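In the laboratory, one determines a bound structure by crystallizing the protein with its ligand and collecting diffraction data. In a computational setting the workflow is compressed into a single prediction: the sequence and the ligand go in, and a structural description comes out. We illustrate the idea with iron/sulfur cluster.
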Amino acid sequence: MSSTKETKMLTFKIKRFNPAVDDKPYFDTFELECNEGTTVLIAIQELIAKQDGSIAMRYNCRAGVCGSCAVLVNKKYALACETLVLQLNKKEIKLEPLPFYPVIKDLVVDMSQFYEKLLAIEPYLKRDHSKDPEAEILQSPDDFHIIEESTKCILCGACHSSCVSVWTDKNYLGPGALLKAFRFANDTRDEDKRQRIKRVTAEDGVFRCHTAFNCVEACPKELNPTEAIQTLKRQSAKQTLKFWSRR
Amino acid sequence: MAEKEVIVDQAQATTGSKLSNLLSWFNPFSRGVGMWAWIAQRLTGLFLVMYVFIHLGIIGTMLLDDFLGFNTGQLYNSITSAMSSPLIEVTGLPSIFEHVFSFAFFIDAALLAALVYHGYNGIRVVLFDLGIGIRKQKTVFWILLILGIISYFLAIWLILSVPAIVLSSGA
Ligand code: SF4
Ligand code: FES
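The predicted complex, in structure-token form:
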């Protein structure tokens, strides 16, 4: 322990659950010396190394890029690697896995339903590649500006876990996938906009959103999936009405 | 019948029963005003729909009077007078205040609260559908709530004063 750094003893309450062994989730309490550079992730790593090797946690980049470390910190959605424990200003820090997803072990959840919905909106550029230029496909800054924010999504799945419509309608695409749908439907290089909008117009698409803003509240990247969904709703209404008037 | 269009089928991805998922709406974690505004919108909506049916039932007793062979309006009048009779007898107060202690007033006050909330929050939701104020949703909520409270007290004042005006002009 270096004397230049201010340290503080904090209590960590971690929700533990191993479906193979335990009947019910329970809380384990740990004490740890933390300094101003300690993130929630570093704290968990230290607990695993020094106190209890059986805590399960998923992480990868440790820089807020990969989106694999989202957890509930004191009942708020956060990326464990980006949350400094001392800045929470709490003596006790409660860590829980993302709600709604099935728990695999402790803080690790099974996010396959989120990925499946993401794949359903075909999250890749679709265009006639035979006419592509030799070098990269250019996009003007103005065109990029439309989708700029939505490209910052790191697929952490927090928004999906927070959405009440997801909870009560299993097939609803959810804010994460719909934000991606917005991102590709409004990408000027994409040539599949019609199909994309038609897809999200279906029963389990954009119109299941009730604008409760839970996803906005949850997103650790401070994105706004609700705004993207509302834009898709308007585009979908426009396209569908046009389709009818032409018949 | 057209087949239901399913984008992804996840019927098997269940983590809780339907009821427990529904109850978790009320679980206060990582929630902002948007969520509570939405829950209140649903509850007031349900209340208003139920009220319509109760209302139709009571109005319907007018027809029942004829059907049962009572005097015109006998059943209906007895229900309405029971509702507007004072719950607590308070003497020596101006006549306006007598209404305040009737069952009918409590129903009216609750109905108005639900109506005003549902209407104003409805405006908020329509604004979002038009793409207005989505990033300022919390501010929009508080502004409309204040407007709603002002309209509510205005309406309560009208309820209390209008019968008094009508009565005095009739006399
Ligand atoms: S929109 Fe935000 S909360 Fe949702 S997956 Fe992307 S980064 Fe995570
Ligand atoms: S570990 Fe990659 S986002 Fe936290």
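The first strand of chain A starts at residue 7 and ends at 16. Keep in mind that any predicted model is a hypothesis to be tested, not a measurement.
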